[in-house]
Every structure is written in C-alpha cells, then in structure tokens.
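Late entry, zinc ion complex.
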Amino acid sequence: MPEGDSLHRAAAKLQPLVGQRLEVTAPHPRGASVAERLDGRQLEAVRAVGKNLLLTFEGGLVLRSHLRMQGRWQVRPRGKPVAGRPWLVLRGDELEALQWNGPVLELGERTLSRLGPDILAEPPDLDAMLARLRREPQERELGDTLLDQRVVSGIGNVWRAEALWEARLSPWLRLAAADDDELRSLLSWCSERMRASAAGVRTPRRVYRRAGRPCPRCGDRIASRGQGDANRTAYWCPGCQRGDSAPAA
Ligand SMILES: [Zn+2]
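Prediction complete; structure with ligand written out below:
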C-alpha cells in the first residue's frame, strides 16, 4: 500500500479524538518527553502532510509522526490491556490511539521549528549538540537549556535531572561555567542510558522526585525548584553538584 494512503487512513481514524482533552502516556521511553508535554492538552487537528502525520495540540504544539515502513497508528476502544510497548498512547473519552514504532516522533512549535540533534540517534552527534549549546547565550542555565528541543531533542525532565547529578553539575550552572568535556560527557551518558532504557535496561533514579531525601553520593538533602519559562521541576543535590544555587523564590 502506498505510504500516503496509509497516512490518510491513519489521519481519518484519529479524527474522532479531535476536540478532546487527551491523557497521553508513553509505555516506551522513546515517547516519554513527548508524553510529558502533551498530557492533558486538547487535540485540535490531525492531518496528513506529505509523508507526515501532524497532530496539532492546544498551545501550538505539533506532534510530527513519520511512519516510514514500520510505524503505525492504531485506534480502538479505550481501556483494553496493552500488549507490548507503544511509543505513545493518546486516551480520549471513548477511544484511544496507540502509536507503534517510528522511526520519527517529534514535537515542535506551530512551525515545526528546527529541532536539535536527537539524543537517541546511533551514534549521537555530540559535536553538533555541543555546538548548539555554545550558540546559546552563555548566561543561560544548563538545566533549562537541556530541555530546549532546539538545542538537543529528546531529553525529558527525568533524564535531565539524572544526567546533571551524574555529571555533578547543578541545573543552575551557567553554560559559560561548564567546559566542553563536561558537557560532552553529560550528553554521552544521557544518550547511553536513554538508549539502554529503550532496550529495557533500567537506570536507578538518584534525584528525580526525591526532594528532601538524602543524596546517595554525599548525603546532603536533594532540592527541587521550577526552572525556565515552562517551570519544569529541576531536582539536584546542592552538596555535590557544582554551580550556582537556585535564585531566591
Ligand atoms: Zn550529593
């Protein structure tokens, strides 16, 4: 079947979810950062454009799904048990849509602005990521920048917290105060652990959602604070992660 046809059929199947506020989950880690940003938003439109399926959500977020040969969308009554690990599950009132395999699933603003290099690419383009980090204003906070999909795509809030802890860098550290080797090893760790996680190997959480508990490395109390325009919660250990402290509330 020609690719375009299956895309238009998928778009048609998804139409009943338009206008609904969706619960979005990601059984597969590949969809985790997307699910975090879309959960609870209203789906405004679904259309097939070229070889892409574009799902527009309230707030101007556009999910682009490029299925190539192996990806597919499945729509069915809500609430049946899920066998396997779809990348995304979008649950409406009566129906749910499951997205299986990609290879491309990315979230952009209205214009599908250029995304940074994919952290899950094999091999990851660490040089390009580093170049983009250095192109940002260097007074930007590292933690905020890591979630900026224009700089590096695919790092969600959990991995931001864990990678910064592993690298012993505070989310509040200014880019200017981190050297290239530190940034490169942070990105490399993140890419390795995220790909391992996609293959089913768990990385224990050291700081994410552990505010107030002792740091497993130094015993200091783990802190948390909203960061950046989107106010996503950053978790860090002030005892062993180098950098500025959080701004006063
Ligand atoms: Zn610590």
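Residues 215, 217-218, 220, 237, 239-240 surround zinc ion (CB under 6 Å). Will revisit in the morning.
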